[in-house]
Amino acid sequence: TDLSHIRNFSIVAHIDHGKSTLADRLIQMTDTVAERDMKEQMLDAMDIERERGITIKANTVRIDYTAVDGEQYVLNLIDTPGHVDFAYEVSRSMRAVEGSLLVVDSTQGVEAQTLANVYQAIDANHEIVPVLNKIDLPATDCDRVAEQIEDVIGIDASDAIRVSAKTGVGIRETLEAIIHRLPAPTGDRDAPLKAMLVDSWYDAYLGVVVLVRIMDGVLKKGDRVRMMQNGSVHHVDRIGVFRPAMTVVDQLGPGEIGFLTASIKQVRDTKVGDTITHEKRGTDKPLPGFKPSVPVVFCGLFPVDNAEFEDLRDAIEKLALNDASFSYEMETSAALGFGFRCGFLGLLHLEVIRDRIEREYDIDLITTAPSVIYHIYGRDGEVTELHNPADMPDPSTIDHIEEPRIKATILVPDDFLGDVLKLCQDRRGIQMDLTYAGSRAMVVYDLPLNEVVFDFYDRLKSVTKGYASFDYQLLGYRTDNLVKMQVLVNDEPVDALSTMVHRDRAEQRGRAMCEKLKDLIPRHMFKIPIQAAIGGKVIARETLAALRKDVTAKCYGGDVTRKKKLLEKQKAGKKKMRQFGKVEIPQQAFISALKMD
Ligand code: GTP
């Protein structure tokens, strides 16, 4: 296709503002998919994505569009992941296209992820077309939202398109805006091949599938190509485009977006952002700005039932096949037995992987406290990365410790502002900015990532009744007074509950954790001390009293069904318990104990 008739774009939006619905509508209006094959949320492939409504992998579709003026266009839509954890993937896919539709729910207005994503688009020099969605709803207020887009984002919204992705109003206008307002791609057919690796995933039939955007040159079936990051060479055995079903084509030229397969074994061998060129007469100038995506949050995953360790290994290996940003290594813990220490891009990523293991592979897991990476500066001048509080060196050998900090942006209605400020303050936040847009406040905080990884989202949602939106980016590392807090149950340290905390908060955290555990651990036949300690010094303590023998004793033998029910309940509880020395700790305790109120 001639370049002037190609348009490449992505859709940026806050979650639930209607990105997927709009994409579906664009596909439908252009008859890309036969009506009978059209299912809701065409672009969200995986079940879990559908359930959570989160698009994780970038998806792509090529749309043939006959414009009002009769010209034929090829539109390539790259669907970017909407969540902050995947910020780097978002930024790469943005660089593969020239423009964005900025979708804002006209009943809601601009939210934190709207901002984060649109800034990425602006960074990538995109032409941006604002789309005000959900105009079919009574609460729609396009004028207010357009004004807000201008105030907060600073782009012209006077010619924003008013759309209902639900009813189809404004879809034709959106397609016309894509061809008239977004620029065509540029590129040189005769130059050496330069293709951006936008995404890759493992397909059971085809092996690794690589999504590419051709910048210069032409890619053909049978070509031998080189990944410029690691120099590996592959024989291209298939190229094609997504309509959205995979459709084989002969070649891909400049400005085009499609896929290649080349008998690549692992997703790990395909780095998002890498440049692909020909083995012979290739370019020697890779595309700028490549960086590998690195995990920032770590936690241990252990099977509740030790016998399921091999199943867990199998599940983790399979998931890792398709997710190069997820790292893992085997870990053994005195208390939890064999498991894996896993690294994730962020909390959502962690949750998604954990859920998939539990659901798709049916393995009950114990998740240890999520930890960030600390930089430990030893007295001997050496710097080490600490991924697991259990590996913390002897404090007497440490000079100082640095922790990662983030810049968090929160948008919240005025009424809840006080609660949000208090929450951030409680989490050792430093306020950087506070501005207003209509009746909403935008607060920017510098926060320690370790105060955010566990339950910050949950707390934020609950104190704002779901009205706040949140996004963050890493700021860098800073020194603080951090210590490792251990938890001892019946005098045995439970590594899985060890956390790094700020010294000033340690007592308070320790007390809260002991109190929680006291409620979460069932009584035993003996007294159980529960303690929090820093470097051998106990800072908090609770005692769980001993219990009588028989749970059914107080039923006086009369009510048989009640007795049975109790016994069954006890049995079900057993399944999810772990033995620590002489004490059984329910799985739920590990998660709940770490939540702070
Ligand atoms: P993620 O892909 O999960 O990030 O969200 P999204 O932005 O794609 O939102 P999605 O398309 O899933 O839409 C969110 C909800 O809004 C769904 O329940 C849609 O049915 C609904 N919705 C989308 N567009 C419209 C619209 O124009 N009008 C109305 N009334 N509802 C809409």
Write the layout of secondary structure elements.
Layout: E1 6-13, H1 19-29, H2 47-52, E2 59-66, E3 72-79, H3 87-95, E4 99-105, H4 112-123, E5 127-133, H5 142-153, E6 161-162, H6 171-181, E7 194-203, E8 207-216, E9 219-220, E10 224-227, E11 233-235, E12 238-242, E13 246-248, E14 251-252, E15 257-261, E16 275-278, E17 297-303, H7 309-321, E18 327-333, E19 337-344, H8 347-360, E20 365-367, E21 371-372, E22 374-378, E23 383-386, E24 398-413, H9 417-426, E25 430-437, E26 440-448, H10 456-463, E27 469-480, E28 482-489, E29 492-493, E30 499-502, H11 506-520, E31 528-534, E32 537-544, H12 560-575, E33 577-580, E34 583-586, H13 587-594
Parallel strand pairs: 1-3, 1-4, 4-5, 5-6
Antiparallel strand pairs: 2-3, 7-8, 7-16, 8-15, 9-14, 10-11, 10-16, 12-13, 12-15, 17-19, 17-20, 17-21, 18-19, 22-23, 22-24, 24-26, 24-27, 25-26, 28-29, 28-30, 28-31, 31-32, 33-34
Helix pairs in contact: 1-6, 11-13
Anisotropy-based shape: globular
Major beta-sheet overview: 8 strands, antiparallel
Beta-strand content estimate: 25-35%
Mean pLDDT: 85
Describe this structure in words.
With 597 residues, the protein is of the alpha+beta class. The chain is 24% helix and 35% strand. It contains 13 helices and 34 strands. Strands 11-10-16-7-8-15-12-13 form an 8-stranded antiparallel β-sheet, covered by helices on one side. Strands 2-3-1-4-5-6 form a 6-stranded mixed β-sheet, sandwiched between helices. Strands 22, 23, 24, 25, 26 and 27 form a 6-stranded antiparallel β-sheet that branches. Residues 41-58 have low confidence and may be disordered. The site of guanosine-5'-triphosphate (GTP) has 19 residues, from α1.
